[in-house]
Amino acid sequence: MAWLNPYRSPTGDPVPAGAYVGRSPAYLLWTLWGFCISWVETRRMRRLLQGIPAAALAGMLILLMLSAGREASSNTISSYLSQAQQATRLEEFDKAEFYFRKLEQLAPRDGQVKYQHAQLYAQQDEYAMAATLLQTLIKDDDRTNDTKVHLDLARWAIEGKLEIEDPVGYAKANLNRVLEEDPKNAYGHYFFSQLFARVGDLDNAIRHLEPVASKAPELRLKLAAYFDIRSHSNQSRVDDSDQARAYAKLVVKDLQRDVREEHTNDINIWTQLAGAYLLLKDYEQAARVMQEANTKFDNAACRQFLGRIYVRWSDHVFRENPEDVGRRMQLLEQAVLIAPDEPEALQRLVSISNTEGEEADEAQRWLKQTLAAGDAPAVIHFILGTIAAGKGDMETALRELDMANEANPRTAVTLNNMAFVLAHTESPDLPRALEMSNQAVRIAPNNASFLETRGQIYTRMGEWSQAITDLEKALNRITSISTRINVHESLASCYENLDDPELARLHRENAETLRAQAKLENDATRGPSDDATIPNLDLQEESPDTDE
After folding, report:
1. pLDDT of residue 261
2. Residue 103 and residue 61: Cα distance in Å, rounded?
3. Of 183, 214, 231, which residue sits at a domain end?
4. Are 223 and 239 in contact (CB under 8 A)?
5. What element of type H or E holds 373?
6. pLDDT tens profile 181-204
7. Taking a C-beta distance cutoff of 8 angstroms, is the pair 412, 450 a contact?
């Protein structure tokens, strides 16, 4: 049967206009088919066939353009995000970055993807990139992640991870945004308490933390630490020690079951429990908890904290029985064997070695025996070099520190101390000292001690403006009074040379005030100093958090 063209009547005449308008939809489809047949009949088939590939390509391009603006299915995004998070946890950063790049194409507006990508940058210490990414989340219309974003930005500012002009003001602005949204947000108050504690305002630190401390054991532990610190300060209240013990006992009660019965895999639970025992001065139990944690996790942070516990135990022995040098040395040896680069253990050993008497000889003898046994050569050479510098033997100091650098290259604290020694020899090699100092600062750009060392080198070189930049940046983050005195004196000298006598006078007055304060503290000292004998020779990359 031949196909009938609806555009022609059976007689061949054209169909009158409007004759079939009222017909069924099936007829309308038939007319469309007729149109196609008529269109093909009037054209050459060969040319139509030649145009098919071009038409197919155009169709594919249109489909791609239409699909480019559409986000992938939620299952696909969830799968990629899960793989990215898993790679981040395993520190397979290149693999994680690959997945996040795919996610940027598949879900360019997904806030959770951006937040997790920022966490990847933070884990690699790329905080500037992480903060930039988080800022885009604050500016978008989705408020889902805003509280977490503001808390992260505040924490990084408090910890000195962001290169910004006013980190305290920046942290406060973000925390205020958190508390505007949720006035009872526990971690908003927690970080505010840290800001107050940093400037010694323990009353306000406690006021912020006390109402929310019941929300988590780590908050109670920090509150216990604040009460303990205040009990030893001039802000002390009658019940501070009791409050500290009460909160520490609550932490022990909360966490013991998790550790003993549930065998939790959260390493923070173990460290918090050990921290609570430390506040209760139960050093043996604290060490036992972290020994078990170290066996379970085999983690560098566990070893570091266990080393710190032995240092605290050693300090306790010194306070209770100063004559028991043997026990104190035994505990410090444990600390160094477990955590060879534990800064407080190194500080104590340097302090003991720089004294006179039997304990100093015993400390140096133990260090050399440890070195001969092949244990922690970089650390031991570092300590011996620092001891030599403290005694003014810069030639030996430089030799030992050079060997420490050979054994463990590009360790920032070793480079910093080598720079110090090179600047203080009889014939200072200031260009080489500056080179070493620059390397240390490149590795740890926010470390106040390293900036102070470089600032002092610039001062000796007569580079006054550069010296001021480093010294002023370091000044408010240095805790050692003797080092702060040196910084004020150097800043006074720099400003004098830049014809600013008023600022020079103010810095000299600050130095005199600190000298008076240091004399009072030395007269009232009750235990070993936390500072190395040579203030500039700091033994740590960053100041440790001693609250816990």
Report:
1. 67
2. 22
3. 183
4. no
5. none
6. 889 899 999 999 988 887 778 899
7. yes
